[in-house]
Design goal:
Elements (H helix, E strand, L loop, with lengths): L1 E3 L5 E3 L3 E2 L5 E2 L2 H12 L5 H13 L1 H20 L8 H21 L1
Antiparallel strand pairs: 1-2, 3-4
Length: 107
């Protein structure tokens, strides 16, 4: 079946079940799940379904590749090192807060 994708162009719908019994997804569903897919938050069956769609649908596959590249740029270029001692100060404050909460809960 031919339908319009999010950008308004015609794409082939994958709705229905594949020959292997997997659930096929359409463009809106694939794009809705894209963030969770890239974050590895989907189960194996969902990953397979989204991967199949991205491999066959140029607009969605292109969007996924852009998102992957953007994440890589952010990961590599936006990484800053915290000042020396900051991590220990934060951990110390967290411990203090936990102790205060326990004391308040016991009161």
């Amino acid at each position: 079946m031919i339908e319009d994708d999010i950008a308004g162009g015609p794409t082939v719908s994958d709705a229905g079940r594949g020959s292997d019994g997997s659930m096929r997804v359409d463009c809106p569903e694939a794009l809705e799940r894209l963030e969770r897919y890239l974050d590895g938050e989907l189960d194996d069956a969902q990953i397979a379904d989204i991967s199949m769609h991205l491999a066959r649908c140029f607009p969605c596959g292109d969007r996924a590749e852009f998102e992957r590249q953007l994440r890589e740029v952010i990961r590599t270029r936006a990484a800053e090192t915290a000042p020396a001692g900051l991590l220990e100060r934060v951990r110390g404050r967290c411990r203090e807060t936990a102790v205060l909460r326990e004391a308040a809960a016991e009161a």
